[in-house]
Design a protein that fits this description.
heterodimer; A: 734 residues; alpha+beta; Aldehyde Oxidoreductase, domain 4; 3 domains; 7-stranded mixed sheet; 30% helix; B: 161 residues; Ubiquitin-like (UB roll); DNA polymerase, domain 1; 5-stranded mixed sheet; 6 helices; 36% helix; N-heterocyclic_Hydroxylase (chain A); AldOxase/xan_DH_MoCoBD2 (chain A); oxidoreductase activity (chain A); AldOxase/xan_DH_Mopterin-bd_sf (chain A); Isoquinoline 1-oxidoreductase (chain A)
Chain lengths: 734, 161
């Protein structure tokens, strides 16, 4: 099934009748290409710049947040350009229509799409530039271009001896005109793709020289901190501005839409002043829920509304009548924070000619909208400079932290860096939504005859559309922003693609069952939410693959054999399942006090099967080993694939073992790593990642490692002690 | 207050409130941005530097406690243009993902090897447990540290902290 979640809002609006925008032109000037004689720079396209000094620059439009685009995408363009990736200098892209992610029509990095969406365009860009260089050299030598070849940044003469560096050819190459399509190299001729090579950013990141958002330094820069309402929806009534303004180093204290900002000449002075800040909050419109209320509201909604049908085959009702038994279970998952190690931050500078922002962001075009909202500037007046990101995981798709920095800088008029504390980062995150799942299955003997899955909870687009819709139409006047947002929502699934965030991973249920009924009961308790590494797959994976395990036991069958019997029609699922079972030696006896659990799950086009070996030691769950087989199509950099899958496994285990954001009367109860822990070095299981050799197009690897490890661990614990855990995080004493 | 300290071999003097964490002095007063802010509470290790040869959490170390002391940060770990052996190993093994925690990881590892040139796997894991990595680079960290240990015990030159 085609997964185009987050592929939203390509509407040319107009669905409500109130807004008739029919032009789909990009909203800002494109990237200038061609040759600059003054500087000796040749830009054959939006990505490459080659100079007479023999330098090669590559504009990286998918931000680097640890997932490896810096190396991976550079490798793609290097392969066809015929130059070593190490000789290319990547640069982070400005906002421009050329750099939009074609799946989302927004300039965003997410959804494990970077390699898949760059695979053709970047190799083509590299091939075209290389061809023009070859043609230029052939013209100089007066030989046929087809007789020349390019290698390691040079064009080689047919005699095999003479050669010219690309830098010598840029001016001439810029004059060449390509005719027809340039054929891409076959897999057998690849020098860099699929080969074991280093990471291009490893040196900067091992010497402390990589610049993250928090490292941005500007002349005359000051520091801002923001006190936000402890309950979402709270408003400032009053605060002791005069007292705080008198403190050492404090330049200003003022209200912004999101709270009260303190600006000082030094960060620590801003923090100390913030400690003295006393704010009288108005909570009349604020969230007052506690975590229990959220799940109560979900259960009430589920009882009240069977939900919108998202997939229906056969008749689940008849299957229940005809089967000899029905199995039912309810699963629940908590809110989760992202906990990027680099806390939210952004630096902004408002000048007469506009605003410049430096930020670690996954969506710089949305950042411009966020900054435009709180200033009198339009998106084109705002420049976003993207830095390295100290983790993203979806958190940096939402631009609240840029909005704040822009609001503060707009008032201060000099460069301001706004840094969130860890406590603020945890309490004012937008969370992976808490979700509830009601599962039912009918069996006849050992045969699974019906599958029913009711997903209960919010969907993320409702929270995201506010900036996403205007970002697609940056020329739209600001008074239309909210309209664009509501049009996007109203038209969802009609004029705009559907939001799959709640149901992805559930609707693709892959096992062969005749009667399938999958529904979503849409209910939103009003707690801010956003994308979180693997998004809907993260909760649906747990529900689907745990329930499959329950059914295997109900059918009296080995969980591997049970799945295998029902997945024979899906060769790529079957392959990873068989491989992982073989590698983990599934049938062999487990050491005393340990047990194994299995899960099989496809997300972002990538097939993953995992076996977890776990036990309980000194009253705590201990994960000993995770074996993982993955099919992600062709591999650009094997080391990065291993890293991403292993990283996803540890991310999933952190959620399974510890992840839980709770609310008490609307206030988030967690604050820092003592009460929102991350897996530490000593808890790390042995992880084995097995990559299936493939000639299929590449699919994502940043997220697919996450979903299956959570049910695989829960299933292992059931195998260990016979206690089925249906809510997260998992407990040793369940 | 006036505070003097040695940072990466250079004498530095500044006038600053004594309760300012060493982290912000290094980053904002001295321009050494390689040391990172992660939690402000000594829980994540991203801000790890060496103070008088000991690893400390600079986010929770008031600068007055470092007065007169000798501080080494990631920028001063190598010798001149030569990187510390651990940094070379980090590059060779491609340890970093987002990379934000890695300065702190390397500083913790460097202290371990300076005090125990041939640690066991268990000793490495114990020494590195105070440094969080959200991306999950833990296994490559162990491999990189072990490669330096192996090189050193083979008689090759290992960098000292």
């Amino acid at each position: 099934m085609a997964m185009n979640r987050r592929n939203f809002l390509k509407v040319s609006a107009g669905a409500s009748g109130s807004l008739m925008v029919s032009i789909t032109l990009p909203g800002c000037a494109g990237i200038q290409t061609g040759y600059e004689s003054d500087t000796g720079e040749w830009r054959p396209d939006a990505w490459l710049e080659l100079t007479a000094d023999d330098e090669v620059f590559f504009t990286l439009a998918r931000v680097e947040m640890g997932q490896g685009t810096y190396t991976g995408l550079t490798t793609l363009i290097a392969e066809e350009l015929e130059i070593q990736p190490e000789r290319i200098t990547p640069r982070f892209a400005p906002v421009a229509p050329e750099y939009r992610n074609p799946l989302y029509k927004l300039q965003l990095t997410g959804g494990s799409t970077s390699v898949a969406t760059s695979w053709e365009p970047l190799r083509t860009a590299g091939a075209e530039a290389r061809q023009m260089l070859v043609m230029a050299a052939a013209r100089v030598w007066n030989v046929e271009a087809t007789e020349c070849r390019a290698s390691e940044g040079r064009v080689v003469h047919p005699n095999g001896i003479d050669s010219m560096a690309y830098g010598q050819l840029v001016e001439l190459a810029a004059k060449e005109v390509l005719r027809g399509d340039i054929a891409l190299k076959p897999q057998s001729e690849w020098k860099y793709i699929g080969k074991q090579r280093g990471k291009l950013d490893a040196r900067a990141k091992s010497t402390g020289t990589a610049v993250y958002g928090i490292d941005v330094d500007l002349p005359d820069m000051v520091y801002g901190v923001v006190s936000r309402p402890p309950r979402s929806g709270g408003r400032v009534r009053d605060f002791n501005a005069d007292q705080v303004r008198a403190m050492t180093g404090v330049l200003d204290v003022f209200e912004i839409e999101r709270g009260v900002a303190v600006v000082a000449d030094k960060y620590w002075r801003a923090r100390k002043a913030q400690d003295a800040l006393k704010i009288d909050w108005d909570f009349s419109d604020a969230v007052s829920l506690s975590t229990g209320d959220v799940f109560d509201s979900y259960r009430a909604a589920a009882d009240d509304d069977p939900g919108e049908s998202e997939r229906s085959e056969g008749s689940f009702a008849s299957a229940m009548e005809e089967g000899d038994r029905v199995v039912e279970a309810e699963y629940a998952q908590p809110y989760l924070a992202h906990a990027t190690l680099e806390p939210m931050n952004a630096t902004a500078w408002y000048r007469e000619d506009g605003m410049e922002v430096w930020a670690p962001t996954q969506a710089p075009d949305l950042g411009r909208i966020a900054a435009a909202r709180v200033t009198n500037l339009g998106p084109d007046d705002i420049t976003i400079n993207t830095t390295f990101l100290g983790g993203g995981f979806g958190r940096r798709l939402t631009q609240d932290y840029i909005e704040e920095a822009a609001a503060v800088a707009y008032r201060v008029g000099r460069p301001v860096k706004v840094i969130w504390s860890r406590e603020e980062d945890t309490r004012h995150d937008l969370y992976r939504p808490a979700m509830l799942h009601r599962m039912k299955a009918s069996l006849s003997g050992a045969e699974l005859t019906g599958w029913h899955h009711q997903i209960v909870g919010p969907q993320i687009l409702d929270w995201y559309v506010r900036n996403a819709a205007p970002a697609q139409y940056p020329w739209a006047p600001k008074f239309m922003y909210d309209t664009l947002g509501s049009v996007g929502l109203m038209a969802e699934g009609i004029a705009t693609p559907k939001d799959f965030s709640a149901i992805e991973g559930a609707i693709e249920y892959p096992y062969r069952v005749s009667n399938v009924d999958i529904r979503h009961t849409h209910t939103d308790p009003g707690i801010p939410i956003t994308w979180w590494r693997s998004v809907g797959f993260s909760h649906n994976g747990f529900a689907v693959e745990t329930f499959m395990d329950e059914l295997a036991h109900e059918a009296g069958e080995d969980p591997y054999q049970f799945r295998r019997r029902l997945i024979g029609h899906e060769p790529r699922h079957l392959e990873v399942l068989d491989r992982v079972v073989r590698l983990a030696d599934w049938q062999s006896p487990v050491p005393e006090g340990r047990a194994r659990g299995l899960a099989l799950f496809r997300s972002f086009g990538t097939y993953v099967a995992q076996v977890v070996e776990a036990g309980i030691e000194n009253g705590a769950i201990r994960v000993y080993k995770v074996t993982c087989s993955v099919d992600c199509g062709q591999v650009v950099n094997p080391r990065i694939v291993e890293d991403q899958i292993e990283g996803g496994i540890l991310f999933g285990l952190t959620a399974a073992l510890y992840g839980e954001i709770t609310l008490e009367n609307g206030e988030v109860q967690q604050s820092n790593f003592h009460d929102y822990p991350l897996m530490r070095q000593y808890e790390r299981p042995e992880v084995l990642v097995d990559i299936v050799a493939s000639s299929e197009s590449p699919t994502g690897v940043g997220e697919p490692g996450v979903p299956p490890v959570i049910p695989a661990l829960g299933n292992a614990l059931f195998a260990l002690n016979g206690k089925r855990q249906r809510s997260l995080p998992l407990r040793a004493n369940a | 207050m006036a505070v003097s300290l040695t940072v990466n071999g250079d004498e530095r003097s500044l006038n600053i409130e004594g309760d300012t964490p060493l982290l912000w002095v290094l980053r904002d007063e001295l321009g050494l941005k390689g040391t990172k802010f992660g939690c402000g509470a000594g829980l994540c290790g991203a801000c790890t530097v060496h103070l008088n040869g000991q690893p400390v959490r600079s986010c929770s170390t008031p600068v007055e406690m470092a007065a007169g002391g000798d501080v080494v940060t990631i920028e001063g770990l190598g010798e001149g243009s030569r990187l510390h052996a651990l940094q070379d190993a980090w590059i060779e093994h491609g340890v970093p993902q987002c990379g934000y925690c890695q300065s702190g990881q390397i500083m913790s590892a460097a202290h371990l090897l300076a005090s125990n040139p041939a640690p066991s796997r268990e000793e490495i894991v114990a020494a590195m447990t105070g440094n969080l990595c959200r991306c999950g680079t833990y296994s490559r960290i162990i491999a990189a540290v072990e490669s330096v240990v192996a090189d050193t015990s083979d008689g090759a030159q290992g960098g000292g902290a």
